[in-house]
Specification:
With about 575 residues, the chain is α/β, with parallel strands linked by helices. The chain has 20 helices and 11 strands. Helix 7 runs antiparallel to helix 12. About 40% of the residues are buried.
């Protein structure tokens, strides 16, 4: 993310327009209803003014103004219905934008793959898809409908004012530019303040989420008070930045109210002096209907501007949020893409052959190389164990074979696109039941398939002891399971996926000998006709596979020679 950067992202406005276009259809109807409701102010004011003229000046009976009152009631009801429809359509547009923007962002982030995501703070990513997208609400549902109303409705009222009295029209015309100029000046500061607020919110979200995940470790080392102080400091920074945004919003609204009140007071003063005979700038005498009509329209002339001012900080917040999202998306675009040597959704049954030539790998862009000049072949349906010292590059090699890590040098080639099943050393398990975590690999799997995979991976050995079996809930990251149990769940997921290429990272670590033998037998049966590459320290696993690639000398040996 862009912590500390106050300059707006160059593509923030473009991204904001792109997000707004997601709800374009209901938004257009909302704008039309808003403008039409504003346009009805003119006939509403005219009906009120004529009714007062008839009653107070012409002393007409109530029956004579019944038609005017009926028309006034009809216009009022119609304006209320249009306001309701506008709000409902604007809410629909906001909800559409929220859902589609989050889906769009999630697809872009997931498409970067695990390698890029590992370098991001999950709390900040969650805040981007949550709070940053929510920051678009005021802009979509408030600012955009009012923006066109500010153009159309005051223009219509200005024409009506000139028709009724030229001096009133001139007062409105000359005071109108003051508000937009001031709003533009205030808007620059509001956008910068909103951007700093969103950055503070993202930093706090990332900081808080990280501390929640490590809560057990924090308590174990007695760092609770220190971490609470850090959270309090982050919250104080967020409070200060939020108050700056509110201060600017209140300032812009106050100044606009001052200009609007001053203009209405000038019109009221002009009309009052004209009625008293102390001022004569119009020629024909001023009747009550004309004066009331102008007085009723004067506040409404500035009402759209007041509403725009109320939502102007929403635009600044939305532009700042779009800028932060733009930076995140552009960071994703600029990140070196992990070349994928396979098509994960291609339904193929043929096991792939693998050829690795002159391969050099580094786990991160600035990290030293862990492997150099590595070359080996695996035939279609062949099996290979990878051994070596801890930290010697076994997991890094598996990630490269899975397409998560680009080679620094050399090449990785498959003769046919494989369907990859990867069981990492530290599998990620979601909060939910064991069955939910298994179904990630095959959402449509039957109960029989689920239990067969769990049985083969020896998950049922410990699931039988749990209160609800496979329906027993577990915590985030597999809380409640041992490391060996989590690996067995990952292995069962792999069985459900039915891949043609199996990449396994220490699948039998932390298992007792009996369970290890059962897992290896299940793997041996499942891997027939499939290409299998396993990183392991287990002599039993090496013997089962038969061929061993020793990363210490970059040579392939028979299992007995390496064990």
């Amino acid at each position: 993310m862009s912590s500390g950067a106050d300059a707006p992202a160059p593509n923030a406005a473009r991204h904001l327009k792109t997000f707004a276009a997601l709800g374009a259809r209901p938004l257009r109807w909302a704008v039309a209803c808003t403008v039409l409701a504003g346009a009805l102010l003119v006939p509403q004011a005219w009906l009120i003014a004529r009714a007062m003229q008839q009653v107070f000046v012409a002393h007409a009976p109530a029956r004579a103004v019944a038609l005017l009152l009926a028309g006034l009631a009809g216009v009022g009801v119609l304006r209320a219905l249009l306001a309701w429809a506008s709000r409902r359509l604007a809410d629909d547009a906001v909800e559409t934008v929220r859902l589609q923007a989050r889906a769009q962002l999630a697809r872009r982030l997931v498409a970067r793959g695990p390698r890029w995501l590992r370098h991001q703070r999950s709390g900040e990513l969650a805040e981007t898809l949550g709070g940053h997208v929510d920051a678009l609400e005021g802009y979509i549902g408030g600012f955009l409908p009012v923006r066109l109303e500010v153009v159309a409705v005051p223009l219509l009222i200005l024409v009506a004012a000139f028709w009724a009295d030229r001096m009133v029209g001139l007062i409105l015309l000359f005071t109108l530019p003051l508000a937009p100029v001031f709003m533009m000046l205030v808007g620059w500061g509001a956008e910068a303040a909103s951007r700093r607020q969103l950055q503070a919110l993202a930093r706090m979200g990332g900081h808080f989420a990280d501390r929640l995940r490590g809560l057990g470790l924090i308590r174990l080392y007695g760092r609770g008070d220190a971490e609470l102080a850090g959270i309090e400091q982050a919250a104080e920074g967020l409070r200060r930045s939020s108050l700056k945004v509110l201060r600017i919003a209140f300032l812009s609204s106050t100044v606009l109210e001052f200009f609007a009140s001053l203009s209405v007071a000038m019109i009221a003063l002009y009309l009052g002096l004209t009625y008293l005979g102390m001022l004569d700038l119009r020629g024909p005498p001023l009747d009550l209907a004309t004066g009331v009509f102008c007085l009723l329209l004067a506040p409404e002339f500035y009402a759209p501007l007041r509403r725009l001012a109320a939502h102007y900080h929403d635009r600044a917040a939305a532009l700042a949020a779009a800028g932060e999202m733009a930076r995140l998306l552009e960071d994703a675009e600029d990140a070196p893409a992990s070349p994928s040597p396979y098509a994960p959704d291609v339904l193929v049954e043929q096991a792939p052959a693998l050829r690795v030539q002159g391969l050099a790998l580094r786990p991160a862009a600035e990290a030293p190389r862990v492997l150099r000049d590595l070359s080996f072949d695996v035939e279609a349906g062949g099996h290979l164990a990878i051994v070596g010292a801890s930290g010697g590059g076994k997991s890094t090699l598996l990630e490269a074979l899975a397409g998560w890590l680009p080679p620094a040098e050399g090449s990785i080639r498959y003769d046919t696109p494989p369907r990859i099943g990867y069981a990492p050393q530290r599998p990620f398990l979601f909060q939910g039941s064991l069955a939910d975590n298994l179904r990630i690999a095959a959402p449509d799997a039957s109960e029989a398939d689920l239990h067969a995979a769990a049985e083969a991976a020896q998950v049922m050995r410990f699931a039988h002891r749990l209160p609800q079996g496979l329906d027993t809930p577990i915590g985030e990251r597999g809380f409640g399971l041992s490391g060996g149990e989590a690996r067995r769940v990952a292995l069962a997921r792999l069985f459900l996926r039915r891949p043609t290429l199996l990449l396994l990272d220490e699948p039998t670590a932390f298992l007792d000998p009996e369970t290890e033998q059962a897992v290896l037998r299940a793997l041996d049966d499942f891997a027939r006709g499939r290409t299998l590459i396993m990183a392991t320290h287990s002599p039993a696993a090496m013997r089962m596979i038969g061929r061993v690639l020793d990363l210490r000398d970059a040579q392939v040996h028979a299992a007995e020679a390496s064990a």
